[in-house]
């Protein structure tokens, strides 16, 4: 089966999994025409699927305006009045749902990590290619205008030859020892711990700004080895368990040395149990002529040290504005804050442009394959205690 439409009046949307990301995707589609009034194909929210036993489907219809709701995602995928589907359930449904989406000729927006490992992610990519649909992967940090500016500065040679790259993804969402043993901590359901959850974001950010990584040497740790079994619906990160404990199967912490194709060296550190750290995500890059640094928590700022001598050079703060990335679609001037949700509107817009043009715009399932290959290589490196090349 091939894509159901080439250049539709309105793209008809389905969303599968209506937790945090499902709502963020739904809002992104709904806001797209407001930020990009000349973009064709303004999305229309048609149907949502979720198997939770609470009232979230009713809320989806009432607050978001979805026409229909389904308890079984297969019913949604089989509809012939849907053009594009967001896969925003937990990791363990991504492969089966995404492959079915492509097989039914629908365009795909899948959250990271797309598959639980490289093999699953490649199955999704193969289905997307075989059925001629477009794809987007949820690597939202590359969409930040300051990240686009960083990428441009490097491409323009402003930093010279890149030598060092430091990436950090530190979080506290798993810091509480009584946090429930949800699917995130069990490999059968999640695939991996911070590797798929956060490190995949860091890989995409580094690749997008600096270039490809070809070798890795990694270390991991589980700091909280058991957690209480969940009581009731365990959604989002904050669920508390009670009573009996079960084993945490995947890494709370991952540190990795990186060798980039162009010779740069990198270090990436990620942790989900780091007390005091909320979304401490960022990248620092040093070249032989200058440096830059970006912190997600100050998303609209770029720290640059450019055009000075070798020693005693200082950083300055640039407030990125309408000249960077897609900033001008959100705010009229620099230092007026954009939001996390805005990055998802940008992602939705890039997917719609890829559907309208028939070619990739933004991060696709093929970027997710590269990230998954690198995650697998890191976990293999931990096992073997050696430098590991990616399979790509
Ligand atoms: N890009 C990002 O920055 C980002 C941020 C958070 C989460 N994520 C990813 O998004 C995905 C979802 O994360 P979340 O935080 O929204 O989780 P969540 O727990 O808030 O939501 C998941 C939803 O999927 C539903 N669900 C579970 N099994 C289902 C099934 N078989 N059929 C239909 N619905 C089902 C649950 O009921 C829940 O509503 C994960 O893969 C996660 O890694 C990405």
From TrEMBL:
Gene3D superfamilies according to UniProt: Dihydrodipicolinate Reductase, domain 2, NAD(P)-binding Rossmann-like Domain
Any single Pfam family the record assigns to this protein: GFO_IDH_MocA_C3
Species this protein is from: Microlunatus phosphovorus (strain ATCC 700054 / DSM 10555 / JCM 9379 / NBRC 101784 / NCIMB 13414 / VKM Ac-1990 / NM-1)
Name of the protein this chain belongs to: Putative oxidoreductase
Domain GFO/IDH/MocA-like oxidoreductase: 148-292
Domain annotation Gfo/Idh/MocA-like oxidoreductase N-terminal: ranges: 11-138
GO molecular-function terms, A-Z: nucleotide binding; oxidoreductase activity
Matching InterPro entries: Gfo/Idh/MocA-like_OxRdtase_N, Gfo/Idh/MocA_oxidrdct_glycsds, GFO_IDH_MocA-like_dom, NAD(P)-bd_dom_sf
Keywords (A to Z) from UniProt: Oxidoreductase
């Amino acid at each position: 089966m091939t894509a159901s439409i080439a250049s539709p009046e309105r793209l008809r949307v389905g969303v599968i999994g209506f937790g945090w990301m499902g709502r963020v995707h739904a809002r992104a589609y709904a806001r797209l025409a407001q930020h990009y009034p000349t973009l064709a194909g303004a999305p229309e929210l048609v149907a949502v699927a979720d198997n939770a036993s609470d009232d979230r489907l009713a809320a989806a219809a009432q607050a978001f305006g979805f026409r229909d709701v389904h308890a079984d995602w297969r019913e949604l995928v089989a509809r012939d009045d849907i053009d594009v589907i967001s896969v925003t359930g937990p990791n363990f449904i991504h492969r089966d749902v995404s492959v079915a989406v492509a097989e039914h000729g629908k365009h795909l927006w899948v959250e990271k990590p797309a598959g639980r490992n490289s093999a699953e992610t490649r199955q999704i990519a193969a289905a997307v290619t075989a059925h001629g649909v477009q794809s987007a992967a949820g690597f939202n940090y590359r969409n930040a205008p300051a990240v686009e500016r960083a990428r441009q500065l490097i491409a323009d040679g402003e930093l010279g030859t890149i030598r060092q790259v430091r990436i950090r993804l530190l979080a506290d969402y798993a810091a509480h020892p009584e946090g429930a043993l949800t699917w995130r901590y069990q490999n059968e359901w999640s695939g991996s711990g911070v590797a798929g959850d956060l490190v995949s974001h860091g890989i995409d950010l580094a690749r997008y700004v600096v270039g490809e990584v070809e070798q890795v040497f990694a270390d991991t740790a589980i700091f909280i080895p058991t957690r209480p079994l969940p009581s009731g619906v365990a959604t989002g990160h904050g669920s508390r368990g009670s009573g009996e404990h079960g084993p945490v199967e995947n890494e709370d912490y991952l540190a990795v040395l990186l060798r980039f194709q162009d010779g740069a060296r990198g270090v990436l550190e990620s942790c989900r149990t780091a007390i005091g750290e909320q979304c401490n995500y960022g990248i620092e890059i040093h070249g032989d002529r200058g440096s830059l640094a970006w912190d997600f928590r100050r998303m609209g700022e770029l720290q640059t040290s450019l055009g000075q001598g070798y020693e005693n050079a200082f950083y300055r703060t640039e407030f990125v504005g309408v000249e960077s990335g897609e900033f001008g679609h959100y705010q009229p001037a620099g230092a007026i804050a954009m939001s996390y949700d805005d990055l998802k509107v940008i992602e939705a817009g890039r997917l719609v442009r890829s559907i309208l043009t028939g070619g990739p715009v933004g991060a696709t399932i093929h970027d997710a394959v590269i990230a998954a290959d690198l995650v697998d290589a890191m976990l293999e490196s931990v096992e073997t205690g050696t430098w590991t090349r990616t399979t790509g």
